[in-house]
Automatic annotation (TrEMBL):
GO biological process: epigenetic regulation of gene expression
Alphabetical list of InterPro entries matching this protein: HDACs, His_deacetylse_dom, His_deacetylse_dom_sf, Ureohydrolase_dom_sf
Sequence ranges assigned to domain Histone deacetylase in this UniProt record: 21-327
Protein origin, superkingdom: Eukaryota
Protein's name in the database: Histone deacetylase domain-containing protein
Length: 364
């Protein structure tokens, strides 16, 4: 079991649910069923895949590494006294609100704890070897949550807490976060905007909610240059994702030399997703995760932990996650790239990438 190539933890959070909402409790079962059908389970591949069982919940101190005590207390209070309730509006429609059910606070703690358990596995802790990659199949998502508030379906910022945990628990100096959710990870950006110990690279669709993530948002103070935003134009797909990694992510990572790589893995850039208008394909996620694996192997002893964020087409979400697992165990993509799919705005993509490269002085 210690030789497993990928260790995963699951926080199904079945109680955190709202009928008709995009971010619903059915997301995790859809993923787990797809992994079973694809034979990407410990039973089917015991030498390659292991599940971290009994993952703990996060502690108050771990949450306070990025969130204020007031925010944590408010979330607990709302779950105990106000739930079910809305804690933040998206576009003032029932399927776009940030909600809390009675169990949401505890479910969010379990999600964070599962993310930290995956970091432990990547660092060579109990049940895993030092070369193990990790995947946290968790909800609610986290990358919109700020220091003081929930936002965009997110209660606590899972990846930000994981980054601080890696630094504080294991003494890692430099953490690289790559966010490929279709929406900009505004909460993660805000939390590390003045921090040169965290390189935050966010690849998202241009001019969609929450409206942040412009190229000129590049950090400030000590963190100047350590936030890199890539706002891709509508219709960007597989080729745009590959070129972004080649022209931006790889040279930025090589310059930063991270001690661990974390990924905010949103699957809502998939062409089937109902929310926005990027055209990633299922195999695109195999390519993204393969690229992150290569970077981690080359730069930081293979330390790579992937945390689930968005993804609201059950088919796009489950196929994307399965392709990610397949990449983590060194297998081939489970789906072919459709070369006859929607045309990509190649010229506009190159213009954006050129602006990012120039802004951050990335060597090609």
């Amino acid at each position: 079991m210690a030789s497993a190539q990928v260790a995963f933890a699951v926080a199904a959070s079945s109680g955190h649910d709202l009928a008709g909402h995009y971010e619903c409790a059915k997301r995790i079962p859809a993923i787990m069923e797809a992994l079973e059908q694809a034979r990407l389970t410990p039973d089917a591949q015991p030498q390659k895949i292991m599940e971290i069982l009994g993952a703990r919940t996060a502690s108050k101190a771990e949450l306070e590494a990025v969130h204020s005590p007031a925010h944590i207390a408010d979330m607990r209070q709302k779950a105990l006294q106000d739930a079910p309730c809305v804690v933040a509006d998206f576009e003032e429609t029932p399927d776009n609100t940030t909600y809390m059910a009675k169990s949401s606070f505890d479910d969010a703690l379990q999600a964070v704890g599962s993310a930290l358990a995956v970091v432990d596995a990547v660092m060579g802790g109990v049940q895993a070897a030092s070369h193990t990659k990790g995947f946290a199949v968790i909800r609610p998502p986290g990358h919109h949550a700020t220091k003081e508030a929930p936002m965009g379906f997110c209660l606590f910022n899972n990846v930000a807490i994981a980054a601080r945990y890696a630094q504080q628990r294991y003494g890692l100096r430099k953490v690289m976060i790559v966010d490929f959710d279709v929406h900009h990870g505004n909460g993660t950006q805000d939390l590390f905007y003045n921090d040169d110990s965290v390189l935050f690279i966010d690849i998202h669709q241009h001019q969609v909610w929450p409206g942040s993530g412009h190229v000129n948002e590049s950090g400030q103070g000590a963190g100047d240059g350590y936030t890199i935003n890539v706002p891709l134009p509508v219709g960007s797909g597989h080729e745009a994702a590959l070129r972004t990694f080649q022209r931006v992510v790889q040279p930025a990572a090589a310059r930063f030399q991270p001690d661990i790589i974390l990924a905010s893995a949103g699957y809502d850039a998939h062409m089937l997703d109902p929310l926005e208008k990027l055209n990633y394909q299922s195999a695109t996620y195999h390519a993204l995760v393969s690229s992150l694996m290569s970077l981690s192997d080359r730069l930081c002893s293979g330390r790579l932990a992937i945390l689930l964020e968005g993804g609201y087409s059950f088919q796009g979400l489950s196929e994307g996650v399965c392709n990610s697992f397949q990449a983590l165990i060194g297998g081939k993509p489970l789906h072919d790239i459709d070369a006859h799919g929607p045309a990509e705005p190649s010229g506009a993509v190159d213009e954006v990438l050129g602006e990012v490269v120039a802004t951050h002085k990335l060597q090609q």
